[in-house]
Amino acid sequence: MTSDCCGPGYASPAEAIRAPREKLLYTIAIYTGTGIQKPDYLATVDVDPESPTYSQVIHRLEMPGIGDELHHMGWNACSSCFDDGSMSRKYLILPGVRSNNLHIVDTASDPRAPRLHKVIDGAEIRAKADLSGPHTVHCLGSEIIISFLGDAKGEAPGGYLHLNKDFEIVGRWENSMGAIKFGYDFWYQPRHNVMVSSEWAAPNTFMPGFDLEEVGHLKYGRELHFWDFEKREPIESMYLGEDGLIPLEVKFHHDPDSTHGFCGAALSSNVIHWWKDGADKWQWEKIIDVENEPHPDWPIPVPGVMSAILVSMDDKYLYLNNWLHGDMRQYDISDPHNPVLTGQVWMGGLLGRAPVVNGVTIAGGPQMFQLSLDGRRLYVTTSLFSTWDNQFYPEIRERGGVMVMIDCDPENGGMTLNPDFIVDFGKEPNGPSRCHEARYPGGDCTSDIWL
Amino acid sequence: MTTRVVTLANRNNASYEVDARRPLLEALRDHGIDLPYGCKYGGCITCAAKLTAGQVDQRRQVALNNRQVNDGYVILCVARPVTDITLEIGVECHDKLYRNPFLDPLKPHELKADIATPEEH
Question: What family name appears in the similarity comment (chain A) (predicted)?
């Protein structure tokens, strides 16, 4: 996407929608916590339907050590430096949640076979920045900011690591964490000088697994935080209470002028909507409430566990998952106060609605997903986090994760499982692995921020 | 150097002499035992093994709840052997480590040490 006149990404969300179709995508796959003593890896998946290796893993880049637990990832550059001809979207940053290592992967020299460029050692990050448990990676201009959920000892709230464009540690990004208790995801909207961050838990709390009782003991988050982005400090917190237990992914509209944004509260299985009102005050409301579902073997109804949300590049649709129920949903959010359910697909889950998809028995439920820039193809994976997988879907050890594709209709709404695409990570050469977040070389619906 | 003998019950009872002051993960890996691990500071449970005989000092671990401790789990990256010990290693010993938290809730005394309340008799 580079040329003589400009840098990476696209001039606007509308330009991004018109970009060429993705032909490759990258997803991380883990062995950490599976019992297989191999490194986690970055898988290249062929998503070009004209290719003979369509719907297959065509390359695997192993990390140097074992036990990283790769999870989310992010680019070194995005549309936020579209005007900077010296930058390019070349490097993917892969944090290891457990090891604290940051792997910098060169995806541009050979997009089909990415190579390791550099590793920032987890111990160095602990020593220089007192941080552990890396999660979300965002770039802004040539700067890179990564949320960490803990201090060097794994205690909340952690903070933000600042890297320069050469992947050297600058130090902590934030000037203050204020009264924030926990960290997790974040997104910013520079035209409104705002960043919003959410709350999971301390690494020492969530890494070993999920003890429900710890929610009641306030070991998990229930607040959203609004930051003065330039001053790098939080200015206002929204207490979501029972409506917002474990607020995870946060997404602003892609439109850089918009103040509307959304958060999926995983345990409450609600979508929270925020916006700035006419009096310049931040407001929030619950706009989607997924009801708990009865289960014959459960003493209480099963919560959806909405671990991820995503907004299409045209800001018209919001996608969400219910990891324990087993469904993906599409809502028309043209009026963000009044979402309309326009699509739903079942795949795996505990309710038994769709145990087999395209011939593969699914262990787990829909978990992480990435949407094509044109809004027509949603790639969905099934593993959440090794220890949590092991609690809720122990059979994933033998079956591994899968990636499926859902065809989405951006004009009229609606979603259907694509019958020709499935990548079964249960059949990987070193044994069943688990795939998680996916990204496309040309950018995707969770990569880019416009200045 | 004070040493202890570690016997691996699910590895044909193979036994190894280790430095009593070093974490078991490090000491056993030096003997060539392939063990899972993650954070290496006692916070993430990936390296958990099951202690079936003897005693360890694992005061630095913060990952296990009291039920897991009572079931014999030890965090190898921070645990040191106090006596000669017998362990089961690897995910084969994780049968009781992971449980569905909705189906099998913890009692107040079974929570992690910092929030557990004493068992009532």
Answer: Belongs to the selenium-binding protein family.
